[in-house]
Structure formats: C-alpha cells, structure tokens
Automatic annotation (TrEMBL):
The keyword Protease applies. It comes from the Bacteria. InterPro entries: CarboxyPept-like_regulatory. GO terms for molecular function: carboxypeptidase activity. Keywords: Carboxypeptidase, Hydrolase, Protease, Signal. The keyword Protease applies. This is Carboxypeptidase-like regulatory domain-containing protein. The lineage of its organism: Bacteria, Pseudomonadati, Bacteroidota, Flavobacteriia, Flavobacteriales. Residues 1-17 form the signal peptide.
Amino acid sequence: MKKICILLLLISNLIWSQNNKIQGVVKDSETFQPIPYVNIYSENELKNNSTGSISNENGEFTVINNKSKIVFSHINYETFSIESDGNLKEILLKPKNYVLDEIVISNEKPKDYLKKIIKLSKNKIDKNTLLKGYCREIVKVNNEYTKYSDALVDYYIKKGNGKANLVLGQHRALKSNNLINEDDKSIGNDNSPINVKDYVKNAYSFETIEKLLKSDDYEFERKIMKEANGDEYEYIGIIPNEESDEMLNKGYVIIDPKSKSILEFKIYTSENHLKNAKTINLLIAKAKRNNILVWSKFKIINNQYILIYSKKQVGMYIKMGKKVDHNFDYASDLFVYEFKNNVEIPDNGYSKKTLFEAGNSFTDNFWTKYNIFPLSENEEKFINSIQQK
C-alpha cells in the first residue's frame, strides 16, 4: 500500500508539473510583431536564485506557473507584469519613450570608458559559482539541418577569472537521416567549431569586445537613455569604418550605470561589409567566413553578477577537394536557469569539444522541462523526422 501511495504521488507531481507549464508569445503592442529574447521571470524565482526564462527568436516562451507575478522585461520595451493565472497566451509590450536619449559629452573617450567597464565587470565573480543550464548546438549545411544536440550542463566557475569546469548531465545527439552517400558522410562528420567548455569563460572575458577595442576600424558612441520612471542605462554603439575593405562587425554594449556592469552585448557582422568576405587558403582546403554573431545577457540577482544567456553563431564556406564545397552554419545557445554560490569546483569535467560527441544518455525528456526556447517549425520538423525513423 505504501508503494502504491508513493507511485500515485509521483504520477500526481508529474501531471501537475506538465499542466503547470505556460506557453505564449510576446508581441509589440503597436506592430503586433513578435519580440525575441525578452527576459521573463517571476518574483518567487529571483528569491531562489533562478534566472527565469527568455523568449526565442519568434517571441515564443515557456514559463512555469508558480502562482506569482510574472515579469516581462526588454531593453526597448516598458516592463510588464501580470499575475500568473495560467492564461498568458499573448503578451503585448509597449515600446519605450525615453525622456532622455543623448550622446554623453565627456573628457573620457567612449573607447576608454568601455575598457574600464570591462575591467570592472570581469572582477564581479567573487565566489566559486555553479551555473546550471540547458545548452544546445545546431549544424546546418547549405541551409539544411544535419545535426542537433542538447544537454543539461553544470558550469563550475572559479572565483575571479570566469574560467569554468563543465560537468555534463543528460544529453542527446541527433543526426540527419539524409546523409547516405559518400559526399554526405564527409560533411556529416563535421561538428561545431565552437568549444562547449568555453561558453561561459568567453562570455565573462568579453574578449570579442576587446578585439574590436584594439582595432582602428571602429568608433564607439556613448549614450545615456533615461525612462519616464527614472530608470536609466548607458548604451555604447560599436560603429565600423564604412570605407574599410575588411569584413567588419557592428553591435552594442548595454551598461547599468549604478553598478558599472555590462548587462548585455551583441556583436555581429556588419551588413555593409558582408561583401568583403575573403577566401583564404589553408593546407588542404579553402575557407571563407560568411558571418558571425556573439551575444550575451547578464543579470544582477541577489547581488550576484550572473550570465543568463549566451549565443554564438558562425557561418563558413569550406571547399576541400571534390567532396566538400558547402556553406556551413554553426549555432549554440546556453540558457542558465539557476545558480549556486560557494560551491566546490570538481577536479574533472567534460573533456570533449562539442555536445554531439557525448552521444545519447538521458532518463527522461529533459528538453521538454528545461528548454525555454521553443523550437522553430523547421527545427521541430528536423527532429521529428529523425525520431520517427
């Protein structure tokens, strides 16, 4: 009888957790267009060192209904909160109207100011910290999906330097069923060049921004933006030299002026410089970088400076002999859903470069619980086509 009661309790908890999940979409209240990468959290979550969730590129989101106020936050929209009653199918956010939006006039150059902010942000990891996250990698060849992998990941960050030891939890790896001939096999063995062990370290090191700061091909524009409610932040635009014949990037850095912390940065290939992509000769191949995207978001939770989202994307053209003459696209997403302080750093961790190399090892459908980025229609079709065969 006792065993039956325990079983019924487990089933009840499972049903409750499934029914307790809320899905919806965030849209602009004026254009009704989806808003990607909106921060979503509940008041209860922040008290428990949870980071909340983020809407995907189509504005779609998934949250747990824990009977508390749900908050929707985006740098370009007014913050919106609503009681969690299970009915959040469509959330409309109003674009912000700034009472102050002007360039900062200062004796300190924006470039020098940004260097100082990076130095301050690097020093904010003052405890050995565990970031618990959901991570995924996607490989496409000639705009067709070839590989999809995801996993639960634990990044143990060392105090002071942001270097992390990665411990892998449950994981899965999916490969296209269409890779059947010899040419396909040669490209099917290709994994992401982005090292999963370095996702967190690279985000906290801000090395992508620092590389641009060392170049004479960029200007930096510092602005102060203040809302009607008194909230303000600093925005530093990264502007490439339009006359350059190099393939340059553009982007922005958002800074909290109170804590002098970087809250978000996004660096991506300038549309006007895509034409400058150059093919380089390697030992056994030719390669050309088509595009790049590096994007990280941070949040200050309970006085801790926490990475909550990191995205990397690289597009490459590779020609190798007669078998490989393709465009490759690699993308990775890391969402941190919880953190813990004062943890012991394990001696050993995951040693491989990509999630796909770990293969399949899972006891439940972990991706339905922890993946807060609802899959796109094409991603779902790809995964379903593999699982059904």
